[in-house]
Design brief:
With 439 residues, the protein is of the alpha+beta class. The chain has 15 helices and 18 strands.
Amino acid sequence: MASKELQAVRGMNDIFPEESAGWQALEDDLRMLLALYDYGEVRLPLLESTELFARAIGDATDIVQKEMYTFADRNGDSLTLRPEGTAGCVRAAIQARSIRGQTPRYYYMGPMFRHERPQKGRYRQFHQLGVEVFGLPAAGTDAEVIALSARILRAAGVTASLQINSLGSPAARIHYRTLLLDYLRPRRGVLCADCRERMERNPLRVLDCKVSACQEIARMAPHLVDHLDEDSAAHFASLQSLLTALDIPYLVNHSLVRGLDYYNRTVFEWVTDALGAQGTVLAGGRYDGLVAQLGGADTPAIGFAVGLERLLALQALQGRGVEAPHPLLFIGALDDVAVARAWRIAEQLRDAGISVVTGGPATFKNVMKQAERSRARFQALIGAEQIAGEALILKEQAGEGRWQGDPEALYEGLRSLGVDFPQHAPHTVRNFATARTSS
């Protein structure tokens, strides 16, 4: 009896070359933009101590209580697949002593894990770009971080609206929490079950509930920005002035509180309805107390994260998908004798930065089928005749271009058919040998 066919874990998807080309292009574009702002990449572990997320994100959050992938390893230590990147980046910066008297700008890209109900555009393994800036407390840093986020979305062709709010200082938030509870408790019966549960432990989360009845209650609730401490109010006013100076339109959303406990002062989101119901594409904020909370010195910090799946989905809606790269040349061996020479020529061309796919040994008919499936621009077949000294024929598979000559001169044959050869950089599609466009 045949074995049962194994399947991927629910909510965790495979990405094949037809899609990964778009991922690579997006990641390349993001890295170029981040270099403009002097961000350096950090590569962080997927696994962290569960305590890190409990301390950073907050025991009362939905992420810690319901969504984390947590397990005990063989030593009995509790480990968690990272549900977000900020906590791990802060832990790494503290451990490496990289923020002592410094103002580093870091970014990271990679998978995150949350046990949510899978749906279109939301998976249990999803991918994010995250950026973090340490040691800079001024509103100007907030404005620059938001300007970077705007540039990322603009470069991706994403149309979204910026929403901002201020959560003030921890002391101001404690005072506001009392005011908010006094407002919510008489209306408890109208709230959804989740909000009734979270109201006492984290009442600010009621403000960003997506249930319509809860949204109506949140709309009439006291505004946190009306109860900020003096420094936070001045910081928020300065941020708004800077955003105006940078021509970045924004809306103050009094219900925007973010779902993680470590935020203070500035929080922001870019939202769009292009994928259906209005959803967040990119979000972040300031977390000045988190470094000290995790054992480091008092260090101001701000950052954001953007979902790569959502960026790609939004690009696809605009028809901006990237086609998987095709090799420039197919070289086919028509018999066993021709294999060694065909493979040697292919390696020489790869040394010159030319993308080559090989086929055979097989009959002429089967090698031609392989050539067609390769979708290479050019094809060349080597058989006993070429080994004996006959000329090799190089031709375009979907065009009229044709060259005939010595198999060892294939490089010159490609050049004669209008192919440019930039420096060898086979890891980037843009730097493969490409055909000139005739004017």
